[in-house]
């Protein structure tokens, strides 16, 4: 079970994973060494899986952010998952409850690249029964992880 100090540390790391141990220590009333030990423990327990950054894909030329819902035949699920995991345009891939539903988030430069992706990386796969496609218009909030 996490105490209030661990919860505070997790909240601050979720806001800014580059915050220093010294700054965190000042906030929670511990030494920098004690804060580092707590973070190491959270990592070792698997509570913190990774430290990451949020990249603005549009500023890197990826103007289209699309979400796909794929219904797949169960016999082909693992093959489809492996194909999509290997595709650099796939940013997120989740297996959801339902009829072997995969949730896929892709980032592409333009509609032409989107069309190529759909034809070569989705429609060409054996075992896909249904595809639903939505294009992101505007991001209002982006938060990975848990609000503590």
Automatic annotation (TrEMBL):
It comes from Paenibacillus shunpengii. Residues 2-63 form the HTH asnC-type domain. This is Lrp/AsnC family transcriptional regulator. SMART domains: HTH_ASNC. It comes from the Bacteria. Keywords: DNA-binding, Transcription, Transcription regulation. InterPro entries: AsnC-type_HTH_dom, Dimeric_a/b-barrel, Tscrpt_reg_AsnC-like, Tscrpt_reg_AsnC/Lrp_C, Tscrpt_reg_HTH_AsnC-type_CS, WH-like_DNA-bd_sf, WH_DNA-bd_sf.
């Amino acid at each position: 079970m996490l105490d209030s100090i661990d919860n505070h540390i997790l909240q601050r790391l979720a806001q800014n994973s580059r915050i220093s141990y010294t700054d965190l220590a000042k906030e929670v009333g511990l030494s920098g060494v004690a804060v580092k030990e707590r973070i190491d423990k959270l990592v070792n327990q698997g509570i913190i899986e990774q430290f990451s950054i949020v990249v603005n894909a549009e500023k890197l030329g990826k103007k289209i952010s699309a979400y796909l819902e794929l219904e797949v035949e169960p016999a082909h699920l693992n093959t489809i998952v492996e194909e999509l995991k290997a595709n650099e345009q796939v940013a997120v891939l989740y297996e959801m409850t339902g009829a072997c539903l995969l949730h896929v988030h892709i980032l592409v430069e333009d509609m032409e690249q989107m069309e190529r992706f759909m034809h070569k990386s989705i429609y060409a796969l054996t075992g896909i029964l249904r595809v639903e496609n939505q294009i992101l218009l505007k991001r209002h909030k982006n938060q990975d992880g848990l609000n503590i």
